[in-house]
Specification:
With 352 residues, the chain is mainly β. It has three helices and 27 strands. The two termini are 67 Å apart.
Length: 352
């Protein structure tokens, strides 16, 4: 549950349980029944409700019979939540929650039920658990920092500019920063580098501590990689200005499997796809404009070209050639739109 929603939801639940289970309520020393509005109409003061054992359960401020101001609940386990409510019944101003025993659990400011500014939460031992900064009510947090119970960094989200003192060094404002993230068990899960709030490099690790993914980014270029358990590269993608201009895949034996290059244009980009055998030798090369094939080539196990196809503007084959070991054409045939073909060079048996 996000901090933005924690206080309103928890308090609403506590109020429902309080009115249902409380045995006695009073205001200014006079017994009242919160379920009967006539007993609180026009009254000003603090409504107090008690459990059967006499312990305080709830305090709620009334102003001329309206619920405004303090709203405080003491739960059965001793934890406490408190807030200020406005005429709409929503949290307004500071809201806090405390662990049993009185240590602060979380606090933040609200505008008509929406978090705004800096919100903090704490682990039971008093260490900071999270910091979140929301620039305006109703918006998503612009920056957040999360810590594990041992004090190690768990997650980090940075804005374009520093939002709180604690993010200045971690997010690399004015000076590059390198951080490590850990899961709740203390395992290293990720390494990141930041420059002025932007992640410029990162590596993620699996539960065995093996690198699984990585990326590097500069002003225009973004390179993302995946890795096999062995540490060898499995795939790579290169994106420039939002266009993937190159991608590659590898076999588990370390040999290149596929390689693709594309133009960085939106309409009908030219692209080349190469497929390799697990020996690393080129097997197929395909050229396209958009989704339309323009040229296909096939290669033997030594990497020599043995066959090719050419295509027209509609993607239909127009020419088919086969080659001998020296690269000489041993077959050439033409294709026509009606599906017929014409042998130009070579033996018809070879064409089949």
């Amino acid at each position: 549950m996000s901090m933005r929603n924690t206080f309103p939801v928890l308090i609403a639940m506590s109020l429902l349980s309080t009115t249902a289970l409380a045995r006695r309520c009073e205001i200014n020393g006079v017994d009242v029944n919160p379920d009967n509005g006539s007993t609180t109409a026009g009254k000003t003061g603090v409504l107090k409700c008690y459990r059967d054992d006499g312990t305080l359960w709830r305090e709620q401020e009334l102003r001329d019979g309206e619920h405004l101001g303090l709203d405080r609940t003491v739960r059965d386990d001793g934890s406490i939540s408190e807030r200020q409510i406005n005429a709409n019944g929503n949290t307004q101003g500071l809201a806090r929650e405390f662990y049993p025993g009185g240590k602060l659990k979380q606090e933040g400011k609200y505008e008509n039920g929406s978090a705004v500014g800096l919100s903090k939460s704490y682990h039971p031992d008093g260490r900071v658990a999270s910091l979140r900064f929301t620039p305006k009510a109703g918006a998503q947090p612009a920056a957040s920092i999360e810590y594990n119970r041992d004090g190690s960094l768990h997650d980090l989200r940075c804005a374009a500019q520093s939002q709180m003192p604690e993010d200045r060094t971690l997010c690399g404002y004015g000076k590059n920063a390198s951080i490590e993230l850990h899961d709740a068990g203390g395992r290293l899960s990720e390494k990141r580098s930041y420059r002025d709030g932007q992640a410029i490099a990162a590596e993620t690790f699996d539960r065995e501590g093996r690198r699984s993914e990585s990326f590097e980014r500069d002003a225009q270029r973004n390179v993302t990689k995946r890795y096999f358990d062995s540490g060898e590269p499995a795939s790579e993608s290169v994106v420039v200005d939002g266009f993937e201009i190159a991608s590659s895949e590898w076999y588990m034996n370390g040999k290149l499997k596929t390689r693709t290059s594309r133009e960085a244009v939106l309409e009908r980009p030219k692209s080349t796809l190469e497929q390799f055998r697990d020996t690393g030798v080129l097997q197929v090369r395909e050229e396209r404009v958009g989704q339309r094939r323009t040229h296909d080539e096939r290669f033997d196990e030594s990497g020599k070209r043995i066959e090719e196809f050419l295509y027209d503007a509609d993607g239909r084959p127009t020419t088919h050639r086969k080659f001998d070991a020296n690269g000489a054409v041993v077959l050439e045939e033409a294709f026509f739109p009606d599906g017929s073909r014409k042998l130009i060079k070579g033996d018809a048996q070879i064409a089949r």
